[in-house]
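Memo to structure team: turn this sequence into structure tokens by end of day. - J.P.
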Amino acid sequence: MNQLNNNNYIEEDEIDLKELFNTILKGKKIIALFTFIAVSLSFIYVLKLPNIYKSEAILIPTESKSGGLGGLGGLAAMAGISVGGGSMTPDVAFNSLLKNYDFMQKFVIENRIVEHYNDIDVDKNYVFALGYRTIYDFFKDDSKEKSYPTDKSADIFNIIKLIQENISISSDKKTALINVSYSDADRSYPPFIIEAFLKDASDYLVTNNLNIINKKLGYFETELRRAESFELRQSISSIISSIIEEKIMTQSKTYYQCDILTAPSESYIKAKTKPKRALILVVSFITSIILSIFFIFFLEFIKKEDSNPQGN
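Reply from structure team:
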């Protein structure tokens, strides 16, 4: 009895597989047409996409001295003076400013970045697959020239978001080297953005750091004048020397607490990072086949339901 049931199950499975295969064969023209249309549209889409290029700068961070202050450190802390070399590394400092809207707003305005991206000729240096930009130009909206509204706040906000999405600031845990990169369709623009950001961010951070250092100097110079014992005056003088050394080191760097290992440069025309056109086409091809097969099964199900409305 069990053998008979097993044979029935096997026979039913074979019949189901044959029906499925026959359904796919019957709908092969629909599958081929759907796949052709989907892949063709994907092909047009990838031809429309400009190449994206990335430029990067590599920085060498320098260690800041914290200075052994002993009991004098506690005395300074009571006065509200920070005397230690903070734990914030340059990459953390840069990322903090990248997320600061007030700083980024000033950065975008002073470097005229909105004007660059709103320029009607911003895409003149774009590179396309096979050097073919006709499809891009066909879909490009030239009905009106871009103009600057009286209130630029929306434009500035959008550009800030664009920069935050395309810039990357990271530190290698093994080497401690800092990598700053930016991606854009115009391969000549990332070096400008990287250098401008590092310069403005460094100016901000160095100015802030010098204010703190000057506050330290003012505090310890006052304490030096008040000190009576020779040993205390000698200790305070040593601290002042360390702070002056910190001030000189802060002012000596091109970028905040960093030396340049490699400067950003324009990418080679074939060294694009995106888009992955071949991958897009392959995914489109596979997805269209799967969806078209599901569509064929759905049509077959509808036909069966129409031919047997009462389930007989």
